[in-house]
Amino acid sequence: MKIANDNNQKEEYREFLKNIREEREGTSNFAKLLFTIVLAVLCAVIVCVTVVENNFFLNSLNPDKSSDEFFSKKERGNFEVPFSPRRQNILLLGVDSNGEGTKMWEGTRSDTIVIVNIDPKTKTINAISIPRDSKVYLPDNHGIQKINSAHALGGVDLVKKTLKETFGIKIDKYIIVHDEAVEKIVDALGGIPIYVEKPMHYHDYAGKLHIDLQKGNTVLNGKQAVGYLRYRKDGLGDIGRTQRQQWFMRSLFEKLHSPQVITKIPEVLNICNTYVKTDMSFYELSQYAAFARSVDENKIEIATLPGAPNQRGYISYWILDPQKTQEVINRMIYRDKPSLDGTKFKGGIMYSPRKEEEAIAMKEKLNELGFEVNMLKITHLSHTRFVANKNAVSVDFFNWLQKKMPELDNMQFIYDPTETFSVGSDFTVVLAEG
């Protein structure tokens, strides 16, 4: 696996962990962010497949439109059911804009890169987010670049080739979403409810970006959602943005399951037709929609390729950790089963001050189950979640623990081998206010 490394990686990584622990406010070490929304791609995708799955409703709203305009007989006749026993990798890209008057899909950087691995046998979904600033070698003599440059230099073919040669991941299908889609889709859905973990205020008059969000539960409109996902005064760089994208995705997923969404189908479909590009037919997308609806949310596993920030002059990179990156790929793509040596896992609890009583009660329950538990109070914590710090902590273990402890239900499962939130533990429950 070819991954560009750096001699000062360990020192930079220690500093990175320190920043996360203290959750300091400050300007990101990365260059000015373009519109990036890791899993905002997923939101548009789920919307697309959901509206396609419910295309019968479109016909009831517009009976003059033939269903063959959405699914041609030729497509139906030649289509092979996508859900054979073989696992599949779907590439999701979110591309930026080069400004007015430019082509939507040419010369644009892929500031969002997500690989979704689906397993029809187990009806599970794994998703890997690749930080846009990851330093890699691009094929076809493009040399060392940030991975988000691949789409600008060679389109989706170069992105797929880069993923194959760098990580050994073969892409089966792809979906590309233009950045303008997110604002329009959120508005079309009537807003997305989310917990804003901290006050967010930032104004970039040149970039026409204005963020004014207060801490607490709120319903984000389109512009607010863009601001929430682009917020950079965080101190966590790409990781902070990726976490918010994952929380945003979860909120959107819940929104899409509400009955009110069906009335939004025509408008959302028009947005998708303009701002989404894919090598899949609508009929294929409908099959993926049916599969997505059959997946238990507790069976969805999310991870980000681990590494550390590094900057040389005006160029900033995310330096991937070769060993831990391979561990993530083996687990998420190749579905390697964790090896269990019979040792009892050690648990950890990180909690906000207002969650202290809940944290103590949780520790008592974990102790009753035979787990040793470490606790750490943190003044500012973002969203509640369950973090697997060790490869042996699987989704199956998490599901077993949920049956013993119902209070873990609906927690997002995240695999983080960097042990950023480990508290010296194999798994960590993060109890935040949101």
Question: What are the SSEs and their pairings?
Answer:
Blueprint (H helix, E strand, L loop, with lengths): L8 H14 L17 H14 L1 H7 L11 H6 L9 E8 L14 E10 L4 E6 L5 E4 L4 E4 L2 H19 L5 E6 L1 H9 L3 E5 L3 E5 L4 E5 L2 E5 L1 H9 L6 H20 L8 H11 E3 L3 H13 L5 E5 L2 E6 L2 E6 L1 H11 L13 E6 L4 H13 L3 E6 L7 E4 L6 H10 L7 E4 L11 E5 L3
Parallel strand pairs: 1-6, 3-12, 12-18, 15-16, 15-19, 17-18
Antiparallel strand pairs: 1-2, 2-3, 4-5, 6-11, 7-10, 8-9, 13-14, 17-19
Notes on the protein architecture:
With 434 residues, the protein is of the alpha/beta class. The chain has two domains: 11-41 and 84-256 and 297-332, Aminopeptidase (3-Layer(aba) Sandwich); 346-431, 2-Layer Sandwich (Alpha-Beta Plaits). It has helices at residues 9-22, 40-53, 55-61, 73-78, 149-167, 180-188, 222-230, 237-256, 265-275, 282-294, 322-332, 356-368, 395-404, and strands at residues 88-95, 110-119, 124-129, 135-138, 143-146, 173-178, 192-196, 200-204, 209-213, 216-220, 276-278, 300-304, 307-312, 315-320, 346-351, 372-377, 385-388, 412-415, 427-431. The longest helix has 20 residues, at 237-256.
